[in-house]
Specification:
The complex is a heterodimer of chains A (266) and B (403).
Chain A (H helix, E strand, L loop, with lengths): L2 H11 L4 E7 L5 H14 L3 E5 L10 H12 L6 H11 L4 E4 L2 H7 L1 H10 L4 E3 L9 H9 L3 E3 L1 E2 L5 H10 L4 E4 L14 H11 L5 E4 L5 H8 L4 E4 L1 H8 L4 H20 L3
Parallel strand pairs in A: 1-2, 1-9, 2-3, 3-4, 4-5, 6-7, 7-8, 8-9
Chain B lengths: L11 E2 L2 E2 L5 H17 L3 H15 L5 E3 L1 H4 L6 E6 L9 H15 L3 E6 L3 H13 L2 E7 H6 L1 H9 L3 E5 L6 H15 L3 E3 L10 H9 L1 H12 L6 E6 L3 H7 L9 E9 L16 E5 L2 E5 L24 H8 L3 E7 H15 L5 H17 L4 E6 L7 H7 L9
Parallel strand pairs in B: 4-14, 5-6, 5-8, 6-7, 9-10, 9-14, 10-13
Antiparallel strand pairs in B: 1-2, 3-4, 11-12
The chains are: A alpha/beta (266), B alpha/beta (403).
The complex binds pyridoxal-5'-phosphate.
Chain lengths: 266, 403
């Protein structure tokens, strides 16, 4: 059990899904990204997903790519992710890191896990790693009490659902559609089925991400999932505003809209 | 007797290779692996591929003695394996026909591909036209400028070419964008991967489709008096090199030399020589291999005059062959490659691809080291028609006002 699962279960006890908000560390700089994450917590996000920018983000669409590229250009480093995690935790929310594999691998898997645990982080979401090749990471995560959150997708076979669920801790991340992160007009219809199938494969907690853009989307997904994950729609608030106060105001308004959606679902 | 190194099945080559991809692609890669395992031993598949190789590509490709070029290589005997004479002008067609046939077997109707120099894109567009498949090619915006002629060729063949504007706007970003397309369209779409890198089954499968180069060349050398002392090929992702190396892997007396792009020189830091430049291992584009990266594991952009070698990774089997010292990897700078390029044009009347010119420099260097008794087989992976403008600019041959 970590702060992450406690919070998910707490939302569950309140009869609602949790709201999980993603922002990349380092956009537009490390301090401002940390303040934006704290602002999301104040505005009603239950859990923050702290993104680590990577040069080759194959699972990200244009919005997150743009922010991540800008963060890399302004010199963000792997260790900055722990600064952001600390800011989230002191704002009162659990933090999970979302990272592609190579930056973690080069930092050193055990060192990464140790530093993340020391910063108060709860775990890692692994978009380009499957349990098939994650033995080294799983050992490091277990040694430091971290959750390892793997993804399932509408294309996952029954066999793979069982396999992935068996190796996942914290929650299973169900991709709502076949595609990359980014805002969409609607949430994929495959999502509800996938959540049911993932539960049937043994998952205790299943959160849905990719494409959730509006309060209405959040409401729909919150009706059947344990958590609703929103990324691009939040990043968009920062991309659209140079001025920090304006950006934070847009971000708070978006979080409020999503939090309202999550609370009106059931 | 030691175990054969030939036709290693993957997914791992020593510590290298594997399959590091999003879950969304796992089902498709499993399906592809399964289909390929069956196809490679199915006479209907291998027979059709052999027929296409003969009647469409023009195989077997010939070998050509290059004595006037050899005179500049310490008098060594230089033999060229002429993949430049294949239909579409490079070795890339060997791989693409295999993967396109496999696409038909999978019942898919759309193919996507990344391309750097445009040769793999042209080959993919060609195979798609031949087999009635829809084709979309992703190409870094920077490369669409460097290789404008190939962009037009792909469009003439009916393919859609999408310039990629993310990241460094070169081959690595084109690969990222092709992955993104694949994740979204995997039901209908097969990814024709252009080199012997990426997640399993691509490194082994692409090697198998390119293996014909070495099988033919080895027999051709034996007919002409015996095995060569060395086989030299250029290495981008490594498909033409592994294709010619594989049949020689168990011939302990044959040196295998891969020539990576040294760009502005290793000491400048601006190059694409992943192995020769001493890069650390990491995970990029689905497999574990050597990659150009900074301390944080962020990929470093590569530099080369040759768009086809301008890639910050290298196929995992090359990483393995380097680690066991079965093959050597050298860095060849832009200037060295262009010197070899011009020399082959003028001594033999053959205009090579700039990629292949890196291997030609390797042969010049090795010949000067070994002297006139040596026989060196060079994989001439492609022809230089696509590179005329780049070369003319390099040598200051463009009409004034055009430079
Ligand atoms: C003629 C030619 N040779 C070599 C290469 C490099 O690829 P590989 O290392 O996979 O053979 C290319 C790639 O575009 C090419 O066009």
């Amino acid at each position: 059990m970590t702060a992450l699962t406690d919070r998910l279960d707490q939302a569950q006890a309140q009869g609602r899904a949790a709201l999980i908000g993603y922002l990349p560390v380092g956009y537009p700089d490390v301090e401002r990204s940390a303040r934006a994450m704290a602002a999301m917590v104040e505005a009603g996000v239950d859990i923050v997903e702290v993104g680590l920018p990577y040069s080759d983000p194959v699972l990200d669409g244009p919005t997150i790519q743009e922010a991540a590229e800008a963060a890399l250009r302004s010199g963000v480093r792997v260790a900055d992710v722990f600064t952001a995690v600390r800011a989230v935790v002191s704002a009162g929310a659990p933090a999970v890191v979302m990272s592609y594999y190579n930056p973690m691998l080069q930092y050193g898997l055990d060192r990464f896990a140790a530093d993340l645990a020391a910063a108060g982080g709860s775990g890692v979401i692994l978009p380009d790693l499957t349990p098939d090749v994650a033995a080294d990471w799983l050992a490091a995560a277990a040694a430091h009490g971290l959750e390892s959150i793997f993804l399932v997708a509408p294309s996952s076979t029954q066999e793979r659902l069982h396999y992935t669920v068996a190796h996942t801790t914290g929650f299973v991340y169900a991709a709502s559609l076949m595609g990359v992160t980014g805002e969409r007009a609607s949430v994929g219809e495959a999502a509800e089925r996938l959540v049911a199938d993932t539960r049937a494969a043994g998952a205790a907690r299943v959160c849905v991400g990719i494409g959730v853009t509006t309060g209405e989307h959040a409401r729909k997904v919150a009706a059947y999932a344990d958590g609703v994950i929103v990324g691009s729609a939040l990043v968009r608030c920062l991309l659209g505003h140079e001025d920090e106060q304006e950006a934070l105001a847009a971000l708070r308004a978006k979080v409020a809209e999503l939090a309202e959606g999550v609370r009106s679902a059931r | 007797m030691t175990e054969s190194l030939q036709e290693a099945p993957g997914p791992y080559f020593g510590d290298f290779g594997g399959r590091f991809v999003p879950e969304a692609l796992m089902a498709a890669l499993d399906e592809l692996t399964d289909a390929y395992e069956k196809a490679r031993i199915d006479p209907a598949f291998t027979g059709e591929l052999a027929r296409l190789a003969r009647d469409y590509t023009g195989r077997p490709s010939i070998v050509t003695e290059a004595p006037r070029f050899g005179a500049h290589a310490g008098g060594a005997r230089i033999v060229l394996k002429r993949e430049d004479l294949n239909h579409t002008g490079s070795h890339k067609i060997n791989n693409v026909l295999g993967q396109a046939l496999l696409t038909k077997r999978l019942g898919k109707t759309r193919v996507i591909a990344e391309t750097g120099a445009g040769q793999h894109g042209v080959a993919s567009a060609t195979a798609a036209a031949l087999m009635g498949l829809e084709c979309v090619v992703y190409m870094g915006e920077e490369d669409t400028r460097r290789q404008a002629l190939n962009v037009a060729r792909m469009r003439l063949l009916g393919a859609t070419v999408v310039p990629v504007t993310s990241g460094s706007r070169t081959l690595k970003d084109a690969i990222n964008e092709t992955y993104r397309d694949w994740v979204a369209n995997v039901d209908t779409t097969n990814y024709l991967f252009g080199t012997a890198a990426g997640p399993h089954p691509f490194p082994a499968m692409v090697r198998d489709f390119q293996r014909v180069i070495g099988v033919e060349a080895r027999a051709q050398m034996l007919e002409r008096g015996g095995l060569p002392d060395a086989v030299v090929a250029c290495v981008g992702g490594g498909s033409n090199a592994i294709g010619i190396f594989d049949a020689f892997l168990d011939d302990a007396g044959v040196r295998l030399i891969g020539c990576e792009a040294g760009g502005h020189g290793l000491e400048s830091g601006e190059h694409a020589a992943t192995i020769a430049g001493g890069a650390r291992p990491g995970v990029l584009h689905g497999s574990r291999s050597y990659i150009l990266q900074d301390e944080d594991g962020q990929t470093i952009e590569s530099t080369s005059i040759s768009a086809g070698l301008d890639y910050p990774g290298v196929g995992p089997e090359h990483a393995f062959l380097a680690s066991i010292h079965r093959a050597e990897y050298w860095a060849v700078t832009d200037a060295e490659a262009m010197e070899a390029f011009q020399l082959l044009c003028r001594t033999e009347g053959i205009l090579p691809a700039i990629e292949s010119a890196h291997a030609l420099w390797g042969a010049l260097r090795l010949g000067r080291e070994l002297g006139p008794d040596a026989t060196i087989l060079v994989n001439l992976s492609g022809r230089g028609d696509k590179d005329v403008e780049t070369a003319a600019r390099w040598f200051g041959m463009l009409p004034e006002g055009n430079e």
